[in-house]
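Record type: ASSEMBLY
Status: queued
Input:
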Amino acid sequence: MSETLVPPAPAPLSAEEVPLGEPKMRARDVSVYYGEKQAINSVSIDVHTEHVSAFIGPSGCGKSTFLRALNRMNDTIPSARVQGQIELDGEDIYASGMDVVQLRARVGMVFQKPNPFPKSIYDNIAYGPRIHGIAEGKNELDAIVERSLIRAGLWEEVKDRLTDSGTALSGGQQQRLCIARAIAVDPEVILMDEPCSALDPIATAKIEELIDELRGSYAIVIVTHSMQQAARVSQRTAFFHLGTLVEYGSTSDIFTNPREVRTKDYITGRYG
Amino acid sequence: MSASTLLLVVLGLGLAGWLVARSRAVMFRRAASNNRIASLPNFHGWYAAIWIAVPAILFTIIWSPIADALVTQSVLAHPAAADLPAFGIARESILSEAQAVADGSANTVFNPMARELVEPFREALGKYRVIGFVVALIIAAVGGAIAFLRLRPDFRARNKVERTVLFVLLLASLVAIVTTLGIVASLVFETIRFFGMVSPIDFLFGTHWAPNPMSNPDNPDPSRYGAIPLFWGTLFIGAIIAMIVAIPIGMMSAIYLNQYAPARMRTWLKPALEVLAGVPTVVYGYFAALTVAPAIRDMALAIGVSNPSSESALAAGVVMGVMIIPFVSSMADDSITAVPQAMADGSLAMGATQNETIKRVLVPAALPGIVAGVMLAISRAIGETMIVVMAASFAANLSANPLDAMTTVTVQIVALLTGEGSFDHPATLAAFALGFVLFMVTLGLNFIALRVVKRFREAYE
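Status: finished
Output:
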């Protein structure tokens, strides 16, 4: 990597002016263990609606692990253990009374590799509304599917072949299908785990555009390997290193005026 | 000087060649400037040994039927053979009796005619044995000479030996294929003979099965060779009753093992299930015949069925289903494991419960593999013999009542081939036609199932 600074986010960002307000999700002193191994050490972070928060950092720094703690996807790994507190609208998501199923309906997730179900495009989108009983009747379900696909910018491309298999789409279309699937259940937070790392630059640009459009309605958290992407799509950036949160602040500050030496070294390409 | 002596001699020569060639290569190596030759001494040894032993042994194998023919020919040329019966079993038995005495595997002859022939046989046998022996030794010597002439410090014995190994491996893989083709050919041949006596239409579509091995073989009654009741019994026991037992239980145990069982539970439950697959089918057979069948009969009596059969299709089918459970379970387990974790994650992240994820995503995604597994299971079940021989009936009934006695294709094959009919009686040949139909069906099922599995695998790679 070159020594030059990564170009800063295209300023001025309109979202910079959106007041942060009450955090949608609040994490306090969160540590995550895999068996004996500690992956995350005492991370505290706030996530806000109408903002895109980017988690950056070198491989293995724990950013994906932390992301998966936000909707308790780590529960699927038997050895994983989470300490500390994570709240959604002030409610502890690790409290014993919390219904994981409800939580994940409110905190949706998009994965690194597009993972459409081997079903039709329609059934992929209708999956969430069906299991949560959101739609009453076929017409309402049709409307949800159409709305979700429109919002994900996929409607024009697939409206004539909703019965085709979702796995037959191109990689970028599959990822937009997965985003449409996630927003079909009307979540409040969308977690994206390196959503563009399996895509080509054109598909990546489309997804980034989509993220920017969706920002207005959701709190979006995106884990990314690409600092340029973080600069382009996010308003707030968190830099993770070796399981700790080094720095968290507005994206333009992180990229132009980092407080920590490690952050500066990383974004200037000294390591990572 | 029997064939085994010859074999030992040739192998001994090979060993000697191995030692000599090896020590020559060692000498080459000592003489070489940098202590290196193209191939290690052992390869030189093997090269010589192969050249000495393999052609000689091949010759011996080819020679023995030729020698037999030549012996018989020269014996028949002897004046004492002029009085032999012209054809048939009598002639054959006299000749083989004389031959047995001549080569020492029997002591005396019963037929006086054979006694006359012992001496000519002994002479001819001795003559051709000596010829064979000498030729084999010459071939071994020539082979050895060729090998030794080629030995040089820069000779690539290693590559040559590898080529031989390749050839041996190829031969080994051909054995199974050739054997299968041979089996198919013999089945087809006998089936055609049978269909020459009973028309395929009567056989495939007739509904009355009662071959009589004691009837006149030249004039079989085609109406007694209708195999529909057998096909139905086979399907009913193997593909319907057994699958009603095996599919749900196998699937559910696979889902439990794959998705819910804690690691410790899985480590003993899975091997325990696989033990079921290792139980000899004959054990299942008497379990079916001695335990399950009477129990089902008693139950049928208890619910008021009058005069239930003690060899019900239900008993054989249920036990066969139990036998198939581990098979279905392990195929389903593999198929579910082959579905990428990302698929399950995607569903869980939508807020689906684990049960919903299994039902709506994992099982549908694994379905092609599961279907293929079930097809393989069916093909095993309908080809399965021991359980039905012991537990199913020999009575060919066309009935949809699982408490009735029914028979299967495999049971009838056993019955016909172990029966009293002569080998070229249509009742015996019918066994081959049945075997042929069974073979085609299981072959078709396996073929389709493997294709499905292959396409399914490709979908996730």
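Annotation: Chain A touches chain B through 27 residues (CB under 8 Å).
Annotation: The mean pLDDT of chain A is 88.
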